[in-house]
Structure formats: structure tokens, C-alpha cells
Amino acid sequence: MKQKILMYLFVFTALLVLFQYVNAKRTFDKLNIKLDLYREQSQKYKDSVAVLQDDILKLSHFNLERNEDAISYFENEGYQVSELIPFIKDELYRLNAVTGEHPIVPFSANEGKKMMINTVKLLNHKWIIADFSDGIYWGEIFLTYEVLEQNNIKFTAVESFLYPFD
């Protein structure tokens, strides 16, 4: 009898170990499949990030903050570039508050509205591109600028266009 109990116990233990092995193998295989999927996704994301970084590098080519020659120009003139860039943008935005027609935008606004500069991008130490709108009509303008003194900037509109209204 003792032998039969030991035999049943051995068979039961063997079946339990076999069940645990099959279950663990199945779980392990599922986790490996998930891990492979995550690795593929991670590689796709890394590739996407690399493409986006290349795009950022291309788009920032004409950008004062990344143009070493333009930054050197301002530094040689004695300006602090980190303070000058926001100052130039603020001075251009401040022209939006002038009463009457906008002093730089050469187009008249729709009745009861005013053309205002919305977005400004400093290309280098001499050029700016901006867009403007009155809420109905919009366009873009190419400006040159010159820093005359610490608190004085001269803007000159070189070229501008108004998008057609449908």
C-alpha cells in the first residue's frame, strides 16, 4: 500500500511538473512574441525620431538662433543675443498696437479690422519673415531690420504678398 501511494504521488508530481512546464513554456513564448513586437515598435520609433531630428535640422538652417555667423555679428557689436532676439520680436509685435494702419504691412485691412503680425521668424542678423492677418485676409512679409541702438530697431518691408480670398 505504501508503494502504491508513493507511485500515485510520483505520477501526480510528474503530471504537475509537466503541467507547470507546458504552462510556463506557453507563457514564455507569448512574452517573447510581445517582446519582439515591442522591439520592432521601438526601432520604428527610433527611426521616426531620427527622421524628425533631420527635419528639425533642415528647418532650423535659416534660423538666427542656430546661425553662428549671425550670432557672432551681434556679439561683436556688443549685444547679448539671448536678450536681443526676444527684444526684436517684441518690437515688431509692438507695431501691432499702433493706431491706424499697420506701419509695415502694406495692405489695408477689412472694414473695422486691422492687419496684425502673427508669427515672426528671424532668419539671420538682417532678415525677418513674418505672417500677418486681419482675421479674414492673410499674407506674409519679408523684412530687413537694423539694430541702431540698444533700444531702437529699424524695420524695412522688402516684399510682401496677400493670399487670395476664396
Describe the structure.
This protein is an alpha+beta fold and 166 residues long. It folds into two domains: 1-59; 64-162, no CATH class. The protein has helices at 2-59, 68-76, 81-94; strands spanning 116-122, 127-133, 138-149, 152-162. Strands 1-2-3-4 form a four-stranded antiparallel beta sheet, with helices on one face. A hairpin with a 4-residue loop joins strand 1 (116-122) and strand 2 (127-133). It starts with a helix and ends with a strand. The model has no long low-confidence stretch (mean pLDDT 90).
Summing up helix and strand content along with how strands pair, one would put the structural category as alpha+beta
The average pLDDT score comes to 90
Cα end-to-end separation: 98 Å
- The number of domains is 2
In percent, how helical is the residue content? Answer: 40-55%
Strand count, sense and barrel status of the largest sheet are: 4 strands, antiparallel
| Global Rg | 34 Å
Strand coverage percent = 15-25%
